[in-house]
Amino acid sequence: MIRQALFAALVSGALALGAGQGFFGGARAQSVTYAPAPSENLVRLQERVGELEQMLRQATGESERLGVELRRAQSKNALLERQLADALGQGGTPAVAPGAPAAAPGAGQLGTLPAAQAPVDSAQLLQDATRYLQLGRYAESEAAFAAFAQANPQSPDAPEARYFVGRTQVAQRRFPDAADTFVAFLKDYPAAARAPDAWTMLGVSLKGMDKADQACAVFRDLPVKYPRASPAVRNLAVAEARAANCPAR
User: Fold this and answer.
1) Is residue 167 within 8 Å of residue 198, measured between CB atoms?
2) What range defines the domain where residue 59 resides?
3) What is the pTM of this model?
4) What does DSSP assign to residue 109?
5) Does any domain span residue 98?
6) Are residues 210 and 241 part of one domain?
7) What does the alpha-carbon distance between residue 8 and residue 6 come to, in Å, rounded to a whole number?
8) Which of 16, 151, 167, 212 is the most buried (most CB within 10 A)?
9) pLDDT, tens only, 10-41
10) How do residues 136-155 score in pLDDT, each as one tens digit?
């Protein structure tokens, strides 16, 4: 449609030019073999038509690309909704890969709430979250940990669940979300057993956000703020500080 309109305009312009310069009959009648040189205006019109055709092809390609991206986003959104429903216990017990190790929380960590005192759904959420974490299904693990923490804010396992919400966000490279999660954790549980870990992972999240100065300050302050941090946490902070090219203390 656009191309037809452009060529119609081109023909009209050429006729007008011909009428003024004697291309088609009139005082300057020519033989049928006469082939006048194209006028400057005609050449410009032809060039403009070519430019518009190129723009049209580019616009068509961009439209097709956006359509593909939209379909991918819709598919991803639907997948996340299914994962969340599954994690919340609406889609049945999540399948476990053959031979996958069963969840085995350590003492004082996840799973410490007696089954007789915990709602069945919350216990299932905790099991699912740990299983997903072991399988590397971080989005599903995050959803289950977050659901458990929201439903059981007073549970002894709530701090651990919220900490692992941040860890799964780091694993997904969603560093701004992880930083927010760890800041909230440290505000609500400043003396929790996981506080040194959360402090260090806050530095990791800031490093992932390209906030090197803030990350280095967090790594530097770990021994001062948490002098009883475990050697593993201290070593992690040192390694991350080295990776961030933090200045020597």
Assistant:
1) no
2) 42-73
3) 0.54
4) S
5) no
6) yes
7) 5
8) 167
9) 445 444 444 444 433 444 444 444 445 556 76
10) 999 999 999 999 999 999 99
